[in-house]
């Protein structure tokens, strides 16, 4: 087990003009853990993931992934990371196979063609490997994005709405696969999702984000009990509607500053 967290974020801040997208965000994810990052639209989830990947430059703060400073040495960490997001399209004119070949080479995957065949079967995309990615359905694109995210067997996996556009049966299958993958490889996973049953099933720990700041944090069970609710969907709604102990804790934290 690593002596340092797989993901270590300290006082992270991102500002666009007068808009503060992420505000003094601090958290750590231990090796082999699954952290859920939850919040409404505009809460800062995707911005945080983009900064973790080095796609966005933080306004302030520090990010270390696998013990590596992402501002100074991110290329040392990126081969051991990967991500999936419905907001980032793969090249539409390339076939699925061509996309996987391109990203596999980018990540330096050994025995790449064998790995493509393997991950295509696992993600159930083998039937359309030679079809242009732009001609796939939304659900097929989601599965291809997951195949790309797993092509290099990453140690750190960042997932933004990983089961978006999937039918319930396929989404359930993907969650089972991710759970098994994490258990077998001890990969660290950061999951941003609006699917609360998915969060309860996959996550060891959850951060509730509101306006770019931590509203509350705990395991799904701890948050459900703290809010006095039956499930994470009710917890999420309490946060969105300005109710619950999380909001009271946030106000106490603000008053103490």
Automatic annotation (TrEMBL):
<dbReference type="InterPro" id="IPR017871">
    <property type="entry name" value="ABC_transporter-like_CS"/>
</dbReference>
<dbReference type="InterPro" id="IPR027417">
    <property type="entry name" value="P-loop_NTPase"/>
</dbReference>
<dbReference type="GO" id="GO:0005524">
    <property type="term" value="F:ATP binding"/>
</dbReference>
<dbReference type="Pfam" id="PF00005">
    <property type="entry name" value="ABC_tran"/>
</dbReference>
<comment type="similarity">
    <text>Belongs to the ABC transporter superfamily.</text>
</comment>
<protein>
    <submittedName>
        <fullName>ABC-2 type transport system ATP-binding protein</fullName>
    </submittedName>
</protein>
<keyword id="KW-0547">Nucleotide-binding</keyword>
<keyword id="KW-0536">Nodulation</keyword>
<keyword id="KW-0813">Transport</keyword>
<dbReference type="GO" id="GO:0016887">
    <property type="term" value="F:ATP hydrolysis activity"/>
</dbReference>
<feature type="domain" description="ABC transporter">
    <location>
        <begin position="7"/>
        <end position="236"/>
    </location>
</feature>
<dbReference type="InterPro" id="IPR003593">
    <property type="entry name" value="AAA+_ATPase"/>
</dbReference>
<keyword id="KW-0067">ATP-binding</keyword>
<dbReference type="InterPro" id="IPR003439">
    <property type="entry name" value="ABC_transporter-like_ATP-bd"/>
</dbReference>
<dbReference type="InterPro" id="IPR050763">
    <property type="entry name" value="ABC_transporter_ATP-binding"/>
</dbReference>
């Amino acid at each position: 087990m690593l002596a340092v967290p797989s993901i270590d974020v300290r006082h992270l801040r991102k500002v666009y003009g007068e808009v503060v997208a992420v505000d003094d965000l601090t958290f750590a994810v231990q090796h082999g853990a699954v952290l859920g990052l939850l919040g409404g639209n505009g809460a800062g989830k995707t911005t945080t993931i983009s900064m973790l990947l080095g796609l966005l430059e933080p306004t302030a703060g520090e990010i270390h992934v696998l013990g590596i400073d992402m501002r100074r040495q991110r290329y040392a960490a990126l081969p051991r990371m990967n991500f999936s997001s419905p907001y980032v399209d793969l090249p539409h004119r390339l076939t699925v196979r061509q996309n996987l070949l391109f990203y596999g080479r980018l990540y330096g995957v050994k025995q790449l063609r064998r790995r493509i065949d393997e991950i295509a079967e696992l993600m159930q995309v083998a039937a359309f490997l030679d079809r242009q990615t732009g001609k796939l359905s939304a659900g097929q694109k989601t599965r291809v994005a997951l195949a790309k995210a797993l092509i290099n067997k990453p140690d750190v996996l960042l997932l933004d709405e990983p089961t978006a556009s999937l039918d319930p049966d396929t989404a359930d299958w993907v969650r089972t696969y991710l759970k098994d993958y994490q258990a077998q490889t001890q990969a660290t996973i950061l999951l941003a999702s609006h699917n609360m049953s998915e969060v309860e099933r996959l996550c060891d720990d959850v951060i509730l984000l509101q306006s770019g700041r931590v509203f509350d944090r705990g395991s799904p069970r701890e948050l459900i009990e703290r809010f006095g609710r039956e499930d994470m969907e009710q917890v999420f709604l309490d946060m969105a509607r300005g109710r619950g102990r999380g909001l009271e804790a946030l106000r106490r934290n603000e008053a103490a500053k």
